[in-house]
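Cross-check.
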Amino acid sequence: MKPFLQSLTPQRLLMASVAVALVTIVLKTGAWYITDSVGLLADAMESFVNLASAVFGLAMVTIAQRPADDDHPYGHHKAEYFSSGFEGLLIVGAALAIIWAAGHRIVDPQPLQQVGWGLGLSIVSSALNGLLAWVMFGAARQHRSIALEADAKHLVTDVWTSAGVVVGIGAVALTGWLWLDAWVAIGVALNILREGFRLMWRSSQGLMDEAVEPEVLVEIHKTLEVFKHHTIRFDHLTTRRSGQRRFVDLHMHMPAGWSLGRAAALRASVEQALMSAVPGLRATIQLLPSDVEAHFDDQKDLI
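Predicted model, tokenized:
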């Protein structure tokens, strides 16, 4: 399974997401058209958001994979956070539009038509979204792509949205309570509104150089333990995330009498071990004699 997921690059999966979004737009719009259900209209509107998100995500992932240059010496990996934030913003906009449309139906409820066909089309589109989301979650872990993860989460939200709509429309057909259609749409909107704000928060944290995940930090410390000795110690360890990349900076103290060649060879071994233990990690280690301490934020450093 892992080789299969590794072969599915973020670009290929986001292209697939664009194609699936187009198909689901046709299916869900058709479901709304034949039933005149505001709940199914809400579901269809979210599919348009899926399309816009997938297109923007594809553009950002392509930019993120550009190599480092003079203007971006650390690469373009943070572009993926813009994709996640943009997707969250679109979701919030769609939720507000759904609430606005449903509000009119609360005051003026309308009878539903051909409910069976409408629900059938909605279920088919949900199955497509669910399958794609399952594949994208696995690939997001393999490629450490926040753009893929954001798109997959949005697709899962879409699946739950469709499930809620199907249940609600079925209840309308059974009970004849037309007002229930509008309240189902509002419930759907509130659910995707929550997901939209979560994506925007996640994006903002990434742009602010958030530290690496706790499990990654544990792996870094485990690797350093292998090299610790009564003459070797590490301190001032800091980490950050940038899209698919993770960075760690630290100081390595060793005896002052060591030759530069010996010290550099050990540093290279530590850096290589760290980067092998944590895929996508870039390690930077500053060498210091054992009796020298580095001081940060001293007054002389702020002048």
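The radius of gyration is 25 Å. The beta strands are 233-242, 245-254, 281-289. Passed to J.P. for a second look.
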